[in-house]
């Protein structure tokens, strides 16, 4: 049953990734992969948020929901395999400054995204002030 939940979450994440990255890339019409960068940032924020909610017994929902969301959806949604291929393509095309900007931007912005998601979940879980 866990594998089915992960597969369903992965399918939903993959379809969401394709839809959003395509929507962004068609609107920007740029060699820079803005759609993949956006998906990686959003996925990093989401997985940081969900990871924070799973510390101890704070997760709202079942372990099955965690597998569906974190392992399935986030695993299907994030796109570092696409990131790697697109970076290689930029390098092969001689677009070294753009490739470097893509690597640095993706890693740093996604790390900030994970931190923001983690911090947001921590704030969300705090009891109201008395």
List the helices and strands and how they pair.
Blueprint: H1 2-28, H2 34-53, H3 63-77, H4 80-92, H5 96-125
Helix pairs in contact: 1-2, 1-3, 2-3, 2-5, 4-5
Descriptive overview:
It is a single chain. By secondary structure, the protein is an all-alpha fold. It has one domain (2-122). Helix content is 81%, strand content 0%. The protein contains five helices and no strands. It has helices at residues 2-28, 34-53, 63-77, 80-92, 96-125.
Short description:
With 130 residues, the chain is an all-alpha fold. The protein has helices spanning 2-28, 34-53, 63-77, 80-92, 96-125. It is globular, with a radius of gyration of 17 Å.
Task: Give the tally of β-strands.
Answer: 0
Characterize the main sheet: none
User: Which segments are poorly predicted (pLDDT under 50) over 5 or more consecutive residues?
Assistant: none
Number of helical segments with 4 or more residues: 5
Report the principal-axis shape.
Answer: globular
- Oligomeric state of shown chains: single chain
Key features?
130 residues; mainly alpha; globular
